[in-house]
């Protein structure tokens, strides 16, 4: 009997894998020797790669919903993993560059781990609908992705201080991160009690 492939490759899956492949580029570009690329081009390329990777996130989700058969279990698993890896890698790079406070990075990364674990547990008890993405989470994501892009770019554009914009937005994202996590946890607390978790 012939073995079936472990996952079905389609356009959304290809975009997800491409996003994962871009992660080392976002970090690796900063390790290139200064004689190869100026700091301006390093920042620009890192920011552009991050934006392209972020766009593939929205695009693969749209295509998976739009075309029948393109939404696969493997894609549903891999898509959020790719997102979290991309954001985490970018934040780690920004902390190393001194452009993002370590506490803020830990808040954002810690929230992603916590909410992922919470969603997995809620799915096991059949209540995953209570921890679906809310508006706070969506606004947090927009602020977070814009902030990371600004902090990767870092250089002024037409006299506009992109670095300061990024610093303000990452603070907003951190606050929204905490609040959105609180909303998810508050929805889950009754089920912790019900199932003997507290």
From TrEMBL:
The chain crosses the membrane at residues 12-32, 38-64, 85-109, 162-185. It is a multi-pass membrane protein. Its EC number is 2.7.8.5. Its main location: membrane. The keyword GTP-binding does not apply. Pathway: Phospholipid metabolism; phosphatidylglycerol biosynthesis; phosphatidylglycerol from CDP-diacylglycerol: step 1/2. It comes from the Bacteria. The keyword Transferase applies. It is an enzyme of class 2 (transferase). Keywords: Lipid biosynthesis, Lipid metabolism, Membrane, Phospholipid biosynthesis, Phospholipid metabolism, Transferase, Transmembrane, Transmembrane helix. One of its GO terms (cellular component) is membrane. It catalyses: a CDP-1,2-diacyl-sn-glycerol + sn-glycerol 3-phosphate = a 1,2-diacyl-sn-glycero-3-phospho-(1'-sn-glycero-3'-phosphate) + CMP + H(+). It is found in: Membrane. GO terms for molecular function: CDP-diacylglycerol-glycerol-3-phosphate 3-phosphatidyltransferase activity. GO terms for biological process: glycerophospholipid biosynthetic process. PANTHER family: CDP-DIACYLGLYCEROL--GLYCEROL-3-PHOSPHATE 3-PHOSPHATIDYLTRANSFERASE 1, CHLOROPLASTIC, CDP-DIACYLGLYCEROL--GLYCEROL-3-PHOSPHATE 3-PHOSPHATIDYLTRANSFERASE-RELATED. Belongs to the CDP-alcohol phosphatidyltransferase class-I family. This is CDP-diacylglycerol--glycerol-3-phosphate 3-phosphatidyltransferase. It comes from Sutterella parvirubra YIT 11816.
């Amino acid at each position: 009997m012939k073995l079936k492939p472990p996952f079905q490759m389609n356009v959304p899956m290809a975009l997800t894998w491409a996003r994962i492949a871009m992660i080392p580029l976002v970090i690796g570009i900063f390790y290139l020797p200064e004689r190869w690329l100026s700091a301006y081009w390093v920042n620009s390329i890192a920011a552009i790669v991050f934006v392209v990777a972020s766009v593939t996130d929205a695009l693969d989700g749209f295509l998976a919903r739009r075309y029948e058969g393109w939404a696969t279990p493997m894609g549903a698993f891999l898509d959020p993993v790719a997102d979290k890896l991309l954001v985490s890698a970018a934040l780690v790079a920004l902390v190393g560059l001194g452009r993002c406070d370590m506490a803020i990075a830990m808040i954002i990364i810690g929230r992603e781990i916590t909410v992922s674990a919470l969603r997995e547990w809620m799915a096991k008890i059949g209540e995953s609908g209570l921890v679906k993405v809310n508006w706070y989470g969506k606004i947090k994501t927009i602020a977070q992705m814009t902030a990371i892009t600004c902090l990767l770019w870092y250089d002024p554009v037409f006299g506009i201080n992109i670095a300061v914009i990024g610093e303000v937005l990452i603070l907003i994202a951190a606050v929204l991160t905490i609040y959105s996590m609180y909303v998810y946890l508050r929805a889950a607390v009754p089920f912790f009690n019900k199932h003997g978790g507290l």
